[in-house]
């Protein structure tokens, strides 16, 4: 097992991250799922150009809760990482961003979504400890486990994982026990992940639509498809009065739907 200290100058960096990283701590789930989607999409891209020789197989991202162990897990079957990549992307790049963040925002209460590449470290807003178990898609790579308890110290060791991909396990803290409730997680996944491009499973069900109507051509859709899509957005609304499907490919790509619900005073 390897142990070390993440190269940061500021002491007590995690309390600062917990206080100032995002105004809403629930964002951590969106960030972790987005990372999993990105890893999966990149793997699909490599497979499409022959850089990944194995079969893609099932690429579903899975979210699970263990109330007894007080853990929440986000697991993907994407690129995965080698031990050197873990050191680079988690210990070096992400924490150099954290250092920049601390220097800029330690005296401010600001919402900085997307500015510093700190998505993974949003996990420490709600957890006392995080484990990352990962195995690269690269041939002959070994699985590794990275662990950190909210201090600049970490451990890195071999892990028994056999499948490619990454599993992020959060040990939820006492102040964030709401994120061990199924209904809470279900509502967050529906709020932030409903139309992400990779299937996401929670509590035994696929909770998102990876191919929503706007990703398709009008010729591929029926009136029923439009109405079903509207129902996905507005579950308890009346049927739409009409819809507009607009595709623009130049000078930029735009796919836009306009749906007007039924009202008492129709025009």
Structure write-up:
With 267 residues, the chain is α+β, with helices and mostly antiparallel strands. The protein has two domains: 2-206, Histidine kinase-like ATPase, C-terminal domain (Heat Shock Protein 90, 2-Layer Sandwich); 213-261, Ribosomal Protein S5, domain 2. It has five helices and eleven strands; from the N terminus they run βααββαββββαββαββ. A nine-stranded mixed beta sheet has the order 1-6-5-4-7-3-2-8-9. A hairpin with a 2-residue loop joins β8 and β9. α1 (13-20) packs across α3. The relative contact order is 0.16.
For the report, how would you describe the main beta sheet? 9 strands, mixed
**How many whole angstroms does the radius of gyration measure?**
21 Å
The number of distinct β-strands equals 11
* Global shape: globular
Helix and strand layout, with pairings?
Elements: E1 2-5, H1 13-20, H2 27-48, E2 61-66, E3 71-75, H3 83-105, E4 127-135, E5 144-148, E6 153-158, E7 165-172, H4 182-192, E8 200-202, E9 205-206, H5 223-233, E10 240-248, E11 254-261
Helix pairs in contact: 1-3
In short:
Helix content is 28%, strand content 24%. The protein is of the alpha+beta class.
Which keywords apply here?
single chain; 267 residues; alpha+beta; Heat Shock Protein 90; Ribosomal Protein S5, domain 2; 9-stranded mixed beta sheet; two-stranded antiparallel ribbon; 5 helices; 11 strands; 28% helix
């Amino acid at each position: 097992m390897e142990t070390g200290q993440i190269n940061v100058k500021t002491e007590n960096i995690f309390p600062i991250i917990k206080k100032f990283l995002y105004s809403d701590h629930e964002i951590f789930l969106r960030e972790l799922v987005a990372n999993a989607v990105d890893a999966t999409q990149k793997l699909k891209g490599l497979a499409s150009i022959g850089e990944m020789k194995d079969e893609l197989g099932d690429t579903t991202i899975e979210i699970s809760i263990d109330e007894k162990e007080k853990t929440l897990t986000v697991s993907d079957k994407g690129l995965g990482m080698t031990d050197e990549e873990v050191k680079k992307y988690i210990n070096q790049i992400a924490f150099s961003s954290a250092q920049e963040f601390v220097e800029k925002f330690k005296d401010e209460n600001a919402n900085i979504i997307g500015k510093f590449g700190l998505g993974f470290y949003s996990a420490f807003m709600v957890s006392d400890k995080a484990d990352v178990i990962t195995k690269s898609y690269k041939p002959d790579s070994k699985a590794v486990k990275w662990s950190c308890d909210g201090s600049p110290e970490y451990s890195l060791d071999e892990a028994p994982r056999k499948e490619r991909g990454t599993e992020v396990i959060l040990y939820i803290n006492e102040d964030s026990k709401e994120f061990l409730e199924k209904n809470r997680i279900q509502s967050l996944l529906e709020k932030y992940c409903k139309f992400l491009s990779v299937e996401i499973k929670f509590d035994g069900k696929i909770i998102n639509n990876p191919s929503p109507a706007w990703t398709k051509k009008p010729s591929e859709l029926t009136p029923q498809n439009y109405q079903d899509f509207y129902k996905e957005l507005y579950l308890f609304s009346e049927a739409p009065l009409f819809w507009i499907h607009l595709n623009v490919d130049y000078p930029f790509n735009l796919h836009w739907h306009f749906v007007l619900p039924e009202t008492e005073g129709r025009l």
